[in-house]
Amino acid sequence: MSLILNDADIMTGVELIDKHHLKYFSIANNLLARIEDKAKNEHLFKELNAYVVYHFDTEEEFMDKFNYDKTPQHKEQHEFFKNKIKELSYLYLVTGSLDEDAKNKISSALIDWFVNHIQVVDRRLCNFILEHSRTDTGIVEKLRYKLHDFIFKHGDHGPTSSFPA
Ligand SMILES: [Fe+2]
Ligand SMILES: [Fe+2]
């Protein structure tokens, strides 16, 4: 099982966020493809947990900066997914459980997030950012800075964490 990438479905024109979403695509697809491979997946689960923190923080920073009108609903979805990934990671990494039910839960959570959040909810946020960037050149610089900062710190691979502590 894997996610199919169609550029038009994921690319929004907000370079930093697009880059983060490509990173999600890569982690999620690796997990979906190697769900049985415990050695590889341990690293991917840790990476996914680190990813949701730095990616959601980035989007939320923009929401706050622009007084985005859907901020509470969007943050609520982030919180929900962050907790779900944490819970599934513990199930997998700590209890070592990977029965059919656990595998299905992991797969549906990853796919659902890609289809219903990234392609719909995040696109709306990105359109809002782009619309407001036209009249706020400062934010364009900020977006550029954050992208360079992200690549400088993490390369194209993003950070990893030591989850679970
Ligand atoms: Fe996102
Ligand atoms: Fe989001």
Question: In words, what does this structure look like?
Answer:
This protein is mainly α. It contains 6 helices and no strands. It has helices at 7-10, 15-33, 38-66, 71-94, 100-133, 137-154. The radius of gyration is 16 Å and the shape is elongated. It starts with 6 loop residues before the first helix and ends in an 11-residue tail after the last helix. Bound molecules: fe (ii) ion (2 copies). One fe (ii) ion binds at residues 21, 55, 59, 118, 122.
Task: Set down the secondary structure blueprint.
Layout: H1 7-10, H2 15-33, H3 38-66, H4 71-94, H5 100-133, H6 137-154
Helix pairs in contact: 2-3, 2-5, 3-4, 4-5
The structure holds fe (ii) ion (FE2) (2 copies).
Which features characterize this protein?
single chain, 165 residues, mainly alpha, Four Helix Bundle (Hemerythrin (Met), subunit A), 6 helices, disordered C terminus, binds fe (ii) ion
What radius of gyration results from the CA coordinates?
16 Å
The CATH first-level class comes to Mainly Alpha
Enter the CATH topology name.
Four Helix Bundle (Hemerythrin (Met), subunit A)
Chemical compounds bound to the protein: fe (ii) ion
Largest sheet: none
- Could you give me the name of the CATH homologous superfamily? Hemerythrin-like
In terms of structural class, how would the helical and strand content be classed?
mainly alpha
Average pLDDT reading = 81
Provide the domain count.
Answer: 1
Please estimate the helix content: over 70%
Which CATH-level-2 architecture?
Answer: Up-down Bundle
Total count of helical runs of at least 4 residues: 6
Total count of strands: 0
Overall geometry:
elongated
* Low-pLDDT residue intervals, each spanning 5 or more residues: 156-165
What is the percentage of strand-forming residues?
A: under 5%
